[in-house]
């Protein structure tokens, strides 16, 4: 699969498995899973033929590891980032002392006033490293990296979970737990 098709397929799968499964006439179960055969048949029915080998390649090589297979390999889901209601079944986890959030510079005043909220997604996404946060923020404009005092949040009873691809998830981050670490990084 060439790079252009790989990227296009990954974006299409993100749209379907995170935001709009009905677009191709499928339903996700409560955990966000769909049988691989159902997904491939629905894609083919829409004129998007994709082999299991090509799907395996997309899952294995996606640089953000957005997708995962069930243990038996018969179902697939997005690892996080859903706007449709799913329960990923992730257990509570103790976060590192500091996590990071990348955003665009234009959103910083609002974030510092109101904190981080999931917006249209189910969770706020946090990174374990600064470099990932820079890349995330750069997708939306000039990046700003925010430092999240995850240790203090957790000590105060705030729950964290970590997705299969290492993204830290929480319901919100109040402004008092945020600090601007770097701008234009």
Rg over alpha carbons = 18 Å
Number of E-type strands = 9
Q: Biggest β-sheet: count, sense, barrel?
A: 3 strands, antiparallel
Overall number of structural domains:
2
Distance between the termini: 33 Å
CATH topology term of the largest domain: ADP-ribosylation fold
Biggest sheet strand order reads: 1-3-2
Number of helices: 6
CATH class designation of the largest domain: Alpha Beta
Determine the fraction of residues in helical runs and give it as a percent range. 25-40%
Strand-helix topology:
Elements: H1 3-19, E1 34-35, H2 36-45, H3 52-61, E2 67-69, E3 75-78, E4 98-104, H4 108-114, E5 124-126, H5 130-138, E6 143-149, H6 150-155, E7 161-162, E8 168-170, E9 178-183
What does it look like?
This protein is an alpha+beta fold and 185 residues long. The protein has two domains: 3-78, Orthogonal Bundle (Arc Repressor Mutant, subunit A), CATH 1.10.10; 98-183, ADP-ribosylation fold (Alpha-Beta Barrel). The chain contains six helices and nine strands. The strands form three sheets. Strands 1-3-2 form a three-stranded antiparallel β-sheet. Strands 4-6-9 form a three-stranded antiparallel β-sheet. A three-stranded antiparallel β-sheet has the order 5-8-7, with no helix packed on it. The protein is globular and about 50 Å long. The relative contact order is 0.15.
